[in-house]
Specification:
This protein is mainly α. It folds into two domains: 70 residues, no CATH class; 223 residues, MetI-like (MetI-like fold). The chain is 77% helix and 1% strand. It has a two-stranded antiparallel ribbon. The protein is globular.
């Protein structure tokens, strides 16, 4: 196991270095990059300062080191808004983390439950009903579902808040009420995908030799399902969940945050892109991809715990 951890950690570091180089090249090797970084109406002094600070007047390898130093030392500044980008990201991170963690738990548990029920009653009315619900969930755009929920359950009936964010530390109950609709709107798509993937995996696994052996030993169907079938069928679900959760943390919930006015990392990235503010977009892109890589590595380690054969 130790060798697997070391090997996986080294590969994670190499991938992160490759991603940082690729992201750097995409954002800084365009002609006159200082014009893109300075905002809409830069002055000559601002352009000269950016050119020197970011190393745009130096060879590309020195420029790369300077850009990475600016980002990871927390000195990167948005020239359009005159604010520290890393500080803004950490300010918005609790909002996005609240959305991602709550929705991630909902879509994981509900997707597993629907997938197991569909496989258990494959071909029967319950399976057909859950299949229809899954297809509807996958086909419904997040922004449409969010707008409908915000209007009917928020603005019209005022059962739940239609938008906004209340921090967990200030009022846990208000925080929970404000997050219910965003959690549900974001979860529906993933629930449909996860239930279909798990159902297919269970049906492929349920007739394997080791499952028949477990039945021959006298185990009940419930024991066979939980101890043998479900444990091995969860491997692709764990992989999907890790990548999807990391993508949401990295700004992948732009539409949900915008519809419910949550002011998280995704909405910050969208607003920066609209204003042609490159430093926040660059930083969020880099941090988001790093989150995907690191959580992917954690998922691989969890794989090795679930299935020792993966360590080889």
């Amino acid at each position: 196991m130790a060798r697997f951890l070391i090997r996986r950690s080294l590969s994670m570091v190499l991938v992160m270095i490759a991603i940082s180089i690729l992201t750097f090249l995409i954002f800084t090797t365009i002609p006159h990059p200082e014009l893109q970084f300075a905002g809409r109406f830069p002055t000559a002094d601002t352009l000269a300062h950016i050119r020197h600070q970011w190393g745009f007047d130096q060879p590309v390898y020195l420029r790369y080191l300077k850009v990475m130093k600016l980002i990871f030392s927390g000195q990167i500044v948005s020239y359009s808004q005159q604010i520290n980008v890393v500080q803004q990201i950490f300010q918005y991170l609790p909002v996005t983390a609240s959305l991602a963690i709550g929705a991630g738990i909902i879509w994981l548990l509900t997707g597993i439950m629907f997938g197991v029920l569909s496989a258990w009653r494959a071909g029967r009315w319950l399976d057909r009903g859950l299949t229809i619900l899954s297809l509807v969930g996958v086909s419904t755009p997040v922004f449409f579902l969010g707008a409908v929920l915000a209007y009917y359950l928020g603005d019209k009936t005022q059962i739940l808040p239609a938008g906004g964010y209340v921090s967990l530390t200030s009022s846990p109950w208000d925080w929970f009420k404000h997050m219910i609709l965003p959690w549900f709107a974001l979860s529906v798509l993933f629930i449909g995908v996860y239930s279909r993937v798990l159902r297919s995996t269970i049906l492929d696994t349920i007739n394997d030799d080791y499952v028949r052996t477990a039945r021959a030993k006298g185990l009940t169907e419930r024991q066979v399902m939980i101890r043998h079938v479900l444990r091995n069928s969860l491997i692709p679900i764990v992989s999907l969940w890790g990548l999807d959760f990391a993508a949401v943390i990295g700004g992948g919930a732009i539409l949900t945050e915008t519809v419910f006015d949550l002011h998280g990392i995704g909405q910050y990235a969208a607003q920066s892109a609209q204003q042609l503010d490159i430093p926040p977009v660059l930083t969020i892109t880099l941090f988001g991809t790093f989150a995907v890589v690191m959580i992917g590595a954690a998922v691989d380690i969890l794989y090795a715990v679930l299935d020792p054969r993966i360590r080889l």
